[in-house]
Structure formats: structure tokens, C-alpha cells
Write a structure and sequence with these properties.
4 helices
């Protein structure tokens, strides 16, 4: 039985190397590579992006200061055609808004969801708002049961909870 990489949490690099083939090279220069690739066993297409990272402060005799990173984003049929015919943007990070595989230091590929960073920013903003409201409350001179109730109602309105529940 052939398993799609989309079903795996971690994809061993050997598996990728054995099953991935280039369909069309888009950019191939010394610092970065873009290509449309295909899993030979499932027929699924991926946009492959690789770039060379040069670390200036590499330490130790085994460190060259250069590492290559790889990203593989699943593509739908329309995306494959759009990219191959030059009608669809594919550069990283602008066109990489959905989950993709990226390699890690241990050699395996793991799924990364870029939408998480947007959620993280929203959560940080909510946390800052909560902190500001609590600081303002602590600095007020009125510490009554009614002021606490008003604070809690305001927090419920701000963060979307219906106080009647």
C-alpha cells in the first residue's frame, strides 16, 4: 500500500529521495532552487524550494557554515499548470500560505503550517490587551465587587464570551 506524505507527521529524507522526481525546473542558481516535483508512487505534485544558508559564525572544524534547506508544498492540478505555464506565483514566502514539508536538523521532513504564525500574532495581541486592562484595573482606586463585575463583563465582551452563558 502506497502512503501519501500528507498522511505522515514525519517523512524520512530517504523516502523523499527515492520517490521524488523533477517535473519542471523553474529556477536553479547557486543560492536557490525552485522546481515542480512529483511523488512517483502517488502521483502527487509538490513545489520544491531549496536554498543555501551561509552561516557567518560557524564554529568547529566540521562546520562549513553552509546548510541547504528544503521545502515541499503540495500542489493541486490547477496549481501545477499555473506554475509550469508561468501564470501563478510560486516564490517563498509569498505563495506559501498552506502547510508544507520542511527539513530539520535530524534529516526528516516535518509539516509546517504558516497560518500558525498569524494565529500567534492574534493571540499575542489578545494577551497584550488583557494585560493592559488588568493593569488599568489594578491602578484604579475603586476595588469593589461592582468594579470587578464590570471588569469581567468587559473582558467577556472583548474576548467574545457571552456573559449570559
Amino acid at each position: 500500500m502506497v502512503i501519501s506524505w500528507k498522511e505522515l507527521r514525519r517523512v524520512p529524507s530517504e523516502l523523499l529521495q527515492n520517490r521524488l522526481e523533477t517535473v519542471k525546473s523553474l529556477v536553479d542558481d547557486p543560492l536557490e532552487l525552485y522546481e515542480v516535483a512529483k511523488d512517483k508512487e502517488t502521483g502527487e505534485h509538490y513545489l520544491h524550494y531549496a536554498y543555501l544558508h551561509k552561516q557567518i559564525a560557524a564554529l568547529g572544524p566540521e562546520k562549513t557554515g553552509e546548510e541547504t534547506y528544503h521545502h515541499l508544498m503540495p500542489l493541486e492540478s490547477d496549481d501545477v499548470l499555473g506554475i509550469i505555464f508561468g501564470e501563478q506565483e510560486y516564490t517563498f514566502p509569498d505563495a506559501w500560505g498552506k502547510p508544507f514539508l520542511r527539513n530539520g536538523p535530524d534529516g526528516d521532513y516535518v509539516w509546517y503550517d504558516p497560518s500558525f504564525t498569524e494565529e500567534e500574532e492574534d493571540h499575542e495581541a489578545m494577551g497584550q490587551s488583557l494585560k493592559d486592562q488588568l493593569v488599568n484595573f489594578k491602578q484604579s482606586t475603586e476595588m469593589t465587587e461592582e468594579s470587578v463585575r464590570k471588569l469581567l463583563e468587559e473582558l467577556d465582551r472583548t474576548f467574545g464570551k457571552d456573559p449570559s452563558q
